[in-house]
Each structure stands twice: as C-alpha cells, then as structure tokens.
Amino acid sequence: QVQLVETGGGLVQAGGSLRLSCAVSGRTFDIGTVGWLRQNPGKEREFVAAITWSTGNTYYSDSVKGRFTISRDDAKNTVYLQMNSLKPEDTARYYCATRGLPPTPSGPYNYWGQGTQVTVSS
What letter does residue 106 receive in the DSSP assignment? Predict the structure, then answer.
C-alpha cells in the first residue's frame, strides 16, 4: 500500500500563491504517477497535474497550465504543487493520488490522501 498526506491548503486572495505538499510513504517502488486532483461538493473530481515517479515528466490541465507547477523531492519522497496567480475558480479540495504502471497521468488512481482545502477569495 501507499500512504499519502497532503498539507499546505488555506485561504488566499485572488492573485496569491500557495504550495501544497504530498508526503508519500509505503510501497513507493510500485508508484508510476503521482497526481493532484481537485473537487468541489456536488461536482466531478478534476485532474490538475501529475508527475511520473521515475522520469519526472509533468502534465497539467489546460486550466492551470502556466500557473501551477508540480515537482518532487526524491530525498523526502514528497511531491509539491506550487500554485501561483490563484483564481476564485481554483477553490476546491485538493487531493494527492498515486497509480502504478503504466504511468498514465489521467488515471485511474489507486491510492488517495485525505485532501486539503484551498479557498481563493475574490
């Protein structure tokens, strides 16, 4: 199994920045991709960004491309989501998730964290 713990959410004004962290533990050798997805109540979960565990290749949704950056720290087994130029429509609960091979960024994802709330005020 893989365990994921997200931190770093909060309340920020539009135009501001936040950095989310996802600490990964457990069977990390089974991981193909680590992704960030977000969801609001009553809405479908939305893909935000992903990084391939072995190669570091990154993928972004069109809605965040150019504003968000996904990265990883191998020594800490942590994946980050740097979010800049935040907009009110970025408000959601953000989840870190992993899937095995093949490392398809669109999922489906097998393991999920508990999520962290991001609220962007206008």
Answer: T
Nearest to 23 by CA among 88, 75, 65, 82: 75
Q: pLDDT of 44-79, one tens digit each?
A: 999 999 999 989 999 999 999 999 999 999 999 999
The residue ranges of the chain whose pLDDT is under 70 are none
Strand partners, 98: 34, 111
- What one-character DSSP code corresponds to residue 76? G
- The secondary structure of 26-74 as a DSSP string is E-GGG-SEEEEEEE-TTS--EEEEEEETTT--EEE-TTTTTTEEEEEEG
Residue with structure tokens 């089974």? 30
Cβ atoms 104, 52 nearer than 8 A: no
Residue that has been written with the tokens 């990964």 in this structure: 24
